[in-house]
Amino acid sequence: MSNNIENKVIAITGASSGLGEATARHLASLGAKVLLGARRTEKLEAITTSIRAAGGEADFLTIDVTRAEDVQAFVDQAVKVFGGLDVIVNNAGLMAIAPLTETKVDEWDAMIDINIKGVLYGVAAALPVFESQGHGHFINLSSVAGVKVFSPGGSVYSGTKFAVSAITEGLRHEVGGNIRTTSIAPGAVDSELKHGSSHTDSAAFVNEFYTIAIPAESVARAIAYAIEQPDDVDINEIILRPTVQEF
Q1: Between the CA of residue 209 and those of 16, 41, 112, 204, 220, what are the distances in Å?
Q2: Range(s) of the domain holding residue 51
Q3: Is pLDDT above 90 for 193?
Q4: Residue 228: Cβ within 10 Å count
Q5: What is the mean pLDDT of the segment spanning 86-91?
Q6: Does 191 map to a domain?
Q7: Which H/E stretch holds residue 28?
Q8: Of the residues 121, 157, 210, 225, which is catalytic?
């Protein structure tokens, strides 16, 4: 019986580590054709080689999601190599926690560029493909910080993740039908995301908070669950946390 994942073409940003890497490996093990995108070429190449060695189908492209032309090239690569695109996982993200009083404007800009614009560029690149072929699936990585404001120090990060949730829901209203939309909102998950804070006290707080983190594979399974549903089922939002996480 088909798992509704086998032979689907799935493009994943932020795929050089953490959630993106775990998702690429898991979906490839279920028979998907995966395209990995991120900035670190050597890591992408190593992960792609590993997936292929395990019998999976994979390719990669070095991209920066803050550049619309890179994300467009990423989608074009999926179509060129695999003949189409069924799912785009807009996963690349930055979490730079610090009080607003620190006025870390450069980090605010970076989070807006990666967390919001990176998702929008993924939408802009994939939507014409999905509309042309009559089907597709957007999976956008939000956060529990997009459900509740992460405090202390998470105001801007939460703002970007609330935006991802709003954009995903708005996209559902606008395109709907055969184009599915899913917002994934993880809590503490073991990944490099926890290393994004340059503010010393905030970094210490985040590292302490993440001692309860669950494996990245937990999110990969949630993403697979959304994809594998029958075509007439649209899983719009998944929130998952460590069982001991209060926030």
Answers
A1: 24, 30, 23, 9, 21
A2: 9-231
A3: no
A4: 17
A5: 98
A6: yes
A7: helix 18-29
A8: 157
| Tokens standing for residue 7 | 């032979």
- Give the residue from 95, 180, 174, 183 showing the smallest Cα distance to 140: 183
Q: Which residues pair with 38 in a beta bridge?
A: 62
| DSSP, res 114 | I
Domain-embedded: residue 2 = no
Residue 118 lies in a domain: yes
Q: Which two tokens stand for residue 15?
A: 């795929």
**Residue 239 counted as domain residue:** no
- Radius of gyration, alpha carbons of the chain: 17
- The total of structural domains in the chain comes to 1
Q: Residue 1 above 70 pLDDT?
A: no
User: CATH no. for residue 204?
Assistant: 3.40.50.720
Average pLDDT for residues 42-52, to the nearest whole number?
98
As to burial, measured by CB atoms within 10 angstroms (0-12 exposed, 13-18 middle, 19+ buried), residue 37 is buried
157 is catalytic: yes
Q: Is the pLDDT of residue 162 over 50?
A: yes
Which alpha helices (DSSP H) does 99-143 contain, by range? 105-111, 118-133
Band the pLDDT of 173: cuts 50, 70, 90: very high
Tokens of 224: 């697979």
